[in-house]
Amino acid sequence: MSKKKFYLALIIFSLTGQIAWVVENMYFNVFIYKMFNASAADISLMVEASAVAATLTTIFIGALSDRLQRRRIFMCAGYIAWGISIIAFAFVRLDIISSVFGAAAGTAAAAVTIVIILDCVMTFFGSTANDAAYNAWLTDRTDESNRGAAEGINSMMPLIAILVVFGGFMGFDLDKSESWTTIYLVIGIVVLVVGVLGFVIVEDAPAKRPDELGYMQTILYGFRPSVIKNNKRLYFLLIGFVIFGISIQVFMPYLIIYYEKSLGMSDYVLIMAPAIILAAVVTVIYGKLIDKHGTRKMIYPSMEMLGLGYVLLFVFPGIIKTQGLAMKIPVFIGSLLMMSGYLSGMAVFGTGIRNYTPEHMAGRFQGLRIIAQVLIPGVIGPAIGAAVLKNAEMIVNNDGTKSFLPSNMIFLAALIVLIILFIYIIFISKSKHVSENAG
Hints:
Layout: H1 3-36, H2 40-68, H3 72-88, H4 94-101, H5 108-140, H6 147-169, H7 177-201, H8 215-220, H9 225-230, H10 232-251, H11 255-262, H12 268-293, H13 295-319, H14 325-356, H15 362-388, E1 393-396, E2 402-405, H16 409-429
Antiparallel strand pairs: 1-2
Helix pairs in contact: 1-5, 1-6, 1-7, 2-5, 2-15, 3-5, 3-7, 5-15, 6-12, 6-14, 10-14, 10-15, 10-16, 12-13, 12-14, 13-14, 13-16, 15-16
């Protein structure tokens, strides 16, 4: 596989996958908030259920791709099915639900339940294609000489995806159900087309000798005490990744609602876009620095950027009561630092985990990665956020219903978790089991 073809596949699959994940992680919350008046507990439940679905899928499909020594078929067919499942959300409307299931089912509460169930179905296909197959393929196709650079590109894609989604959503009134219908149709078709294109541009790594382990043994391989003992650096990194992810998930499910509703920044897209572009540049450069200096040295600057971003996002909205530049400038700077720290941190952990994943076993270890990246943070982080927002201010909507307003306390809670991570990193850095390149 040529270098150009590899990077083309990396960029297309990574960006498209992240666009789909951004819509799920940042806008499904907005969708059920605006369309069905979902509560913080509803949002937390949806994130948690999706995290469980993603983890189980990645464990089983990742192991299967190892057994078959094939990533391409899971990537391409998975993206096609993923696209179809996204299109299905275009039909989650109260009028359609009532006509199909009856008036009793056409309530906001029932619609929220349907969204949560359909989100788990969509997550199954998305995790098959992206979390299990694509990430294993990326590990197969890189080595320690270029993994940081590739991971830098891969890690910046969530920011680029946010920019694409923000820009694309600007033309829609998200208070109208027909806008969501169009959004889901467009994104679903794009993901589907990329899956078809993948059959042309994606190539599997050369097959190795057949795996002697059975399927269930392959699934459970990463949980064996002997495997943990022989790969301590990998598991140290995974624990750190858990804490990092919890910090992010404390605020992320509520971020857009916070900008738009709590801060009254209806033009948040125009403020966030420059921050996203700059953070993407920072992430690409950071990936190259990781290759040069190692993950152990580069983890600290990423945490410092993230922590400073939290501080600004927590402090300034509480002391500035205007909605003008006095508010927008510190929010912009805080968002830039937060996103730069988030994505550079993802690059550090991603590179370290790939470096310490046993060769030709990437599939079976994707389940462990998703447990660290999605399951535990996706259950604990939003729950912390929901607990912080338990007594959040309520507002009355135009139709008489009530909605909660996220507060800046979510960033303080995220900062506390980050401080725990900082202490943990210092501790393991002094461990005799962690080398110069460990996270």
